[in-house]
Amino acid sequence: MKKAFVTGGSGGIGQGICRALAADGWKVYVGCLSHRAEAEALAAEIGGEAVVCDVRDEGQVEAALERIGEPELLVNCAGIAWGGVFQAMSGEEWENILSVNIGGVFRCCKHAVRGMIARQSGCIINISSVLGQSGGSCEAAYSATKGAVIAFTRSLAKELGPSGIRVNCICPGCIDTPMLAAFSPEEKEDFVDRTTLSRLGTGADIGAAAAFLASEGASFITGQTLTVDGGFLI
């Protein structure tokens, strides 16, 4: 059975991705840090395994991938947000969001590609955000990290393509997950009004996109950014 490692698999988007991949026959390793109980419950539900891994720590990343044993698919979904005027952000907060949102992608890719290169095949899917494309007021740091994920994806696709490894990116729009808890009902309604399909997205919507990019049907797709936002940006 093919193995997939989903970092941030215990989150709202991560759970949708894990369920979709499991339904397609993948053995899913559900990455988590602070939500271990949720990861273990999900793993039990889908026949996978929970893996505790702080993507800011290269040693933990390497140990997690050694335990999994060279997955054919890596989905970098672990991420954190920070909202507020950028002048109020401390240097420590800035470094932390960079270390998770783009540093984590780097560290996981670095250690996952070893087995992929040896096999001359593999797939990486990085989760960015529409804010990585458009930018967001009072979310400068988050937007910067997600924009970096898009650029990293394109560069890595060029570098790893000759080794048979595909690298793509998904940019979710407004997805109904706990990350939206900081917004008021009125703000959420504004998101709905600005979305062409007149609803918030779900983790399942992103899961379906990830399952497609991981499938044989996408075998000639690499270096692409798939925006899954219900028409939020058009």
Walk me through what this model shows.
- This protein is of the alpha/beta class and 234 residues long.
- It has a single domain, classed as 3-Layer(aba) Sandwich (Rossmann fold).
- The protein has eight helices and seven strands; from the N terminus they run E-H-E-H-E-H-E-H-E-H-H-E-H-H-E.
- The protein has helices at 12-23, 36-46, 58-68, 91-119, 131-134, 140-160, 185-194, 203-213, and strands spanning 3-7, 27-32, 49-52, 73-76, 122-127, 165-172, 225-228.
- Helix 1 packs across helix 8 (203-213) and helix 4 (91-119) runs parallel beside helix 6.
Q: Outline of this structure?
A:
This protein is of the alpha/beta class and 234 residues long. It has a single domain, classed as Rossmann fold.
- Just give the CATH class: Alpha Beta
Low-confidence runs = none
Named CATH architecture: 3-Layer(aba) Sandwich
User: What is the first-to-last residue Cα distance?
Assistant: 39 Å
**What is the general shape?**
globular
- The CATH superfamily is known as NAD(P)-binding Rossmann-like Domain
The Cα radius of gyration reads 17 Å
Number of helices: 8
Major sheet summary line: 7 strands, parallel
Strand order of the largest sheet: 3-2-1-4-5-6-7
Derived from helix and strand composition plus strand pairing, the structural class reads alpha/beta
Give the SSE order as H and E letters: EHEHEHEHEHHEHHE
Domains (count): 1
What is the averaged pLDDT score? Answer: 96
